[in-house]
Each structure stands twice: as C-alpha cells, then as structure tokens.
C-alpha cells in the first residue's frame, strides 16, 4: 500500500512540475516576433524648453507612441484575438539588427526629427536658425562591404578621400564615379573622436561602386534663442510634426491649442511636408485613451499604386479614420500634408 501511495505522490509531483514547466513556457518563452499595441499619448510641454518662451497654450499637443514587446506564446494568442493588436516578425521590426544597434538607430531618427522640427518651427516664426551638415550617418553596414570591420552603425562619415560634401547625394555622386575594387579613404567620427580607414569599394549595381552601407543625412541646427528638447525614451522619426507644432507655439507665442487636447503623428521634412509612419491605428487608440479630441494624421493621395504598398492597403489617414470610427468615437481625424497646413487648420 505504501509503495502505491509513493507512486501516487510521484505522479502528482510529476504532473505539477509538468504544469509549471508548461505555464513557464506559455508565459515567458520568447518567440521570434513582437506584439505591437497602443502606447502612450504624452503632453509635449514637458519635453520642450525654449528660453524665455513658455508654452502659452491652455490645452496640449500630444506625441503618440506604439508599445513594442517581445511575443510569448500567451501574448501571441492574445494578439491574435484582439483586432487592434498586431504581430510582427523580429527581423521586420529591427531589420536584423541587434537590440543595442536598433535602439541607437531609433535614437538617431528621433534626434534628426527634432532638428528638423526646430528648423521648421523657427523659420515659420521668423526666428534666426541655421543648419550645419555634419556628414552621412551609417544606418547599416552590408555583409559584402570591405569596410565592415572598421565602420559601425552610428558612425558619421565626414570625408571621403579628404573631400567633404554638404549632402549625402554629394558623397554618393563622388563615390559612384570610382571603380569597383579601387581604394577609398573614409574619415568618420565615433563618440566624438575622428578615425580614418582605407578599403576597396564593392559592386553595388552593374555600373556602380560603393562602400556598402545604408545611410542618411546627419545635420544639426543652431538657433539664436536657445531651445532644448528631451524626448526621454522615445525613438523614431514619427514625432516630427508634433514637435514642430509644440516648438512653434512656444517660439511664436501663438496659442494654437486653444484649450484642446491635440494628438497626432507624422515625420517632418526640411520643406515642412509631413510623411507617413507605422502603427497609426495604435496611436489613435492611445490618443483617445489620453482624452485627445483631435488627431492629426499624415495624408497622401490613395492611388492604386500607393495602396498596393501601404500597410493593409490603406493610407495612414484611411486607417486612422477607420480606427477612430470603431475605437475612438468623437475624435476628429484631420488629414495633414504639411506643417503649414496643420497651423492653418488649428488657427481656424
């Protein structure tokens, strides 16, 4: 009888351990994907400081975000069941980069969008502002690049063969004239220090040579009236429009908020045009939860060609409007193509 009782106890222990292991796997085992969910909508007043120019508005401009979490079996199933949650492959989110490299690139995108926001806002307010082109920022180094052991993501290339250009196109045009396997001397900055390296160019296309990197412009702005923007943990370029509005409100002294909670999203270009972003449906929900009554959404004309490549075959504005209708009743979604148009709408 005792032996049978011992076997029963062992079976119970085995069953409990199996259940614990299953629950641990179900709740904590990381999958090779991410769950995207509505993040936060945060008042930009706490992020922006313009010397001698406090925010005159009684309402708020709000920057919206998407919450990104590594998926586990439990959260994966939840995301499949909840319509406004989505599952993205890890490589689609990070581009195959490590977590640290991905965070560094997102931080750069945020800083770039802040620089463009300052330049646009100060120019619109007729305040002194100037741009200084630093060079080309390295977003990714291709596996076939001869420079891959020297140049890293986050470096800024300032010269090639001793020549500095004021646009990425200038650098690309010069390099494109060189031959495959010809040596190129690259001067670059990393953590405030200057380095130099020489390697051979690789074949990019049938007619063109290159370093073998993905790049973007690295630019800084200088203003007569000091401005400081601290985005905290936020990353990416999608806050450009809202940062521009917040900075403009403070530097110009115009009350565009007029007591309203205004959320939105969209990149900002040097000419003030507003570009599309990802996850706008999550941002609309985040804005609604924070009490926003107006949502500024990037707008592009929904042609057949455009819709073919859009997320869910819907433009940002179409998806935002559809999401608001279902999850944010009472919120007005406004189509925006430029910073100037956003200011005009808010003044009206």
From TrEMBL:
Residues 203-298 form the Lon proteolytic domain. The keyword Magnesium does not apply. GO terms for biological process: proteolysis. The chain crosses the membrane at residues 12-31. This is SepM family pheromone-processing serine protease. Pfam families: Lon_C (PF05362), PDZ_2 (PF13180). Residues 128-197 form the PDZ domain. Its EC number is 3.4.21.-. InterPro entries: Lon_proteolytic, Lon_Prtase, PDZ, PDZ_sf, Ribosomal_Su5_D2-typ_SF, Ribsml_uS5_D2-typ_fold_subgr. Keywords: Hydrolase, Membrane, Protease, Transmembrane, Transmembrane helix. SUPFAM superfamilies: PDZ domain-like (SSF50156), Ribosomal protein S5 domain 2-like (SSF54211). One of its GO terms (molecular function) is peptidase activity.
């Amino acid at each position: 009888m005792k032996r049978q009782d011992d076997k029963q106890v062992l079976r119970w222990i085995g069953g409990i351990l199996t259940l614990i292991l299953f629950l641990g796997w179900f709740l904590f085992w990381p999958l090779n994907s991410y769950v995207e969910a509505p993040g936060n909508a945060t008042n930009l007043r706490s992020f922006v400081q313009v010397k001698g120019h406090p925010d005159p508005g009684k309402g708020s401009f709000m920057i919206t975000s998407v919450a990104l979490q590594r998926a586990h079996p439990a959260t994966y199933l939840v995301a499949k069941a909840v319509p406004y949650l989505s599952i993205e492959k890890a490589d689609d989110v990070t581009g195959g980069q490590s977590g640290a490299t991905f965070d560094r690139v997102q931080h750069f995108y945020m800083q770039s969008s802040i620089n463009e926001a300052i330049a646009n806002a100060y120019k619109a307010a007729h305040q002194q502002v100037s741009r200084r082109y630093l060079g080309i920022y390295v977003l990714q180094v291709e596996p076939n690049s001869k420079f891959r052991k020297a140049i890293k993501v986050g470096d800024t290339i300032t010269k090639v063969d001793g020549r500095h250009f004021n646009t990425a196109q200038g650098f690309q045009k010069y390099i494109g004239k060189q031959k495959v396997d010809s040596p190129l001397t690259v001067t670059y900055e990393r953590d405030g220090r200057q380095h130099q390296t020489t390697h051979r160019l690789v074949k990019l296309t049938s007619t063109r040579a290159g370093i073998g990197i993905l790049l973007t412009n690295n630019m800084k702005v200088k203003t007569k009236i000091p401005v400081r923007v601290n985005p905290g943990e936020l990353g990416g370029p999608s806050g450009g429009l809202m940062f521009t509005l917040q900075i403009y409100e403070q530097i110009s002294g115009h009350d565009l908020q007029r007591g309203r909670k205004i959320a939105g999203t969209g990149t900002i270009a040097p000419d003030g045009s507003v570009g599309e972003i990802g996850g706008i449906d999550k941002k609309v929900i985040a804005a609604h939860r924070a009490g926003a009554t107006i949502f500024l959404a990037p707008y592009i004309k929904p042609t057949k060609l455009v819709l073919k490549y859009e997320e869910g075959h819907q433009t940002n504005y179409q998806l935002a409007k559809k999401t608001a209708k279902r999850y944010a009743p009472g919120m007005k979604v406004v189509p925006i193509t430029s910073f100037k148009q956003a200011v005009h709408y808010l003044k009206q």
